[in-house]
Design a protein that fits this description.
Largest sheet: none
Length: about 200
C-alpha cells in the first residue's frame, strides 16, 4: 500500500464525497472479485479468504482484522489519518456487505472481470489516498516497521501477500489464484503509476 499524501486542504464536503466514491468503487471491485471466487492482497485479501472459509460476511471480517492496526496508524501517521482510515474502513465494511442486495452478476468472464475489478479497485484506492486516508492493514504495519527497523515497507507487504497467496493455493482452484495474482499486480501498477508526488498534483 502506498503512503497517502495530500498537497491541498480538503473541505469536509470534499472528503465526504471522496470517501463515498472511493469506498463504493472498492466495494464494487470486491463484489466482482468474490463473484469470481478470487482473492486480493493485504488485509482485504485476508478477510476475503476468511469469508470463504467461515461463511462470515466480508465486511465484518474486514473491520475486525483492521482493528489492531489503528494504534500503529496513529503512531506512524497521526490522529487525522487514523480517523479518516477508520471511517473509510467502516464505510467499506458496510457498503461491501450491502452492495450485493442491489447489484448482481449472472455471468462474468474471469479475465474481463479481473481487469474491471482491478481497475475500479485501483481508482477507488487512489481517491482515498488523495484525501489522506487508506484502507488500513498491512500497509500501516509495513510503514511502522520501516521506521523502526529500516526494513523496506514494500518487502513487508510482499512477504505478507506471498504467504496469503501460498495459503490460497491450497484452498482455491489454480486458475482462480492466477487470476487473483493478475488482479493484485494491476492494482499495484495503477497505484505505482498514479500515486506519485512528482506528478498529477492538484492545482
Amino acid at each position: 500500500m502506498a503512503e497517502p499524501h495530500h498537497s491541498i486542504n480538503h473541505t469536509l464536503a470534499d472528503d465526504a464525497q471522496a470517501f463515498a466514491l472511493g469506498t463504493t468503487m472498492c466495494s464494487l471491485g470486491l463484489l466482482i472479485l468474490t463473484n469470481l471466487g478470487l482473492i486480493t492482497g493485504q488485509t482485504a485479501g485476508l478477510a476475503v479468504l476468511l469469508s470463504y472459509l467461515t461463511g462470515m460476511k466480508f465486511g465484518l471480517l474486514f473491520f475486525l482484522v483492521n482493528i489492531p492496526f489503528y494504534v500503529l496508524a496513529y503512531m506512524r501517521m497521526g490522529l487525522r489519518f487514523t480517523i479518516k482510515t477508520f471511517i473509510a474502513v467502516a464505510l467499506l465494511s458496510v457498503i461491501a456487505d450491502q452492495l450485493p442486495n442491489f447489484v448482481q452478476f449472472s455471468e462474468i468472464d474471469p479475465l474481463v472481470g479481473t481487469l474491471i475489478m482491478a481497475g475500479v479497485t485501483g481508482l477507488g484506492l487512489m481517491v482515498l489516498f488523495r484525501h489522506g486516508a487508506s484502507l488500513g492493514g498491512i500497509g500501516v504495519l509495513a510503514l511502522y516497521l520501516q521506521d523502526k527497523t529500516g526494513f523496506r515497507a514494500g518487502h513487508t507487504q510482499l512477504i505478507f501477500d506471498a504467504c496469503l497467496f501460498s495459503v490460497a493455493f491450497f484452498i482455491l482452484p489454480l486458475p482462480m489464484v492466477l487470476y487473483s495474482l493478475l488482479g493484485a499486480v494491476i492494482v499495484n501498477l495503477i497505484i505505482a503509476t498514479n500515486h506519485r508526488k512528482d506528478r498529477y498534483v492538484a492545482l
